[in-house]
Design goal:
This protein is about 5% helix and about 25% strand. It has about 100 residues and is mainly beta. The two termini are about 15 Å apart. This is (2Fe-2S)-binding protein. Keywords: Oxidoreductase. GO terms for molecular function: iron-sulfur cluster binding; oxidoreductase activity. Pfam families: Fer2_4.
């Protein structure tokens, strides 16, 4: 996977297809989901409910909750999830919001 992301590429693992906001992405199987999405060029995982400010991974250890995504209908921290085949990932609470990557 070639990106303009400042994060190291995760190209040694076999990839699996996941869906992120209706787009299919091939991410490394078993990789940390937050890291894999960042390496794929996805910088905005959610927006704050009040101001709509963009948020993405910050601590990468489950303390800050900035990497929240909706996976199969449940809001979870992306930094605490491994990439597996067929994940259905969406930005939480953003029906109709614009993509700001």
């Amino acid at each position: 996977m070639k990106t303009v992301s400042p994060f190291l590429e995760l190209d040694d693992a076999p990839t699996v297809a996941v869906t992120f906001d209706g787009r299919t992405l091939d991410l490394p199987e078993g990789a940390n989901l937050a890291a894999a999405l960042l390496a794929a060029g996805e910088g905005v995982f959610r927006r704050t409910p009040v101001s709509g400010a963009p948020r993405g991974p910050f601590c990468m250890m489950g303390a800050c909750f900035d990497c929240l995504v909706e996976i199969d209908g449940i809001v979870r921290q992306a930094c605490m999830i491994e990439v597996t085949e067929g994940l259905q990932i969406a930005r939480p609470h953003e029906a109709g919001a614009e993509d700001d990557t």
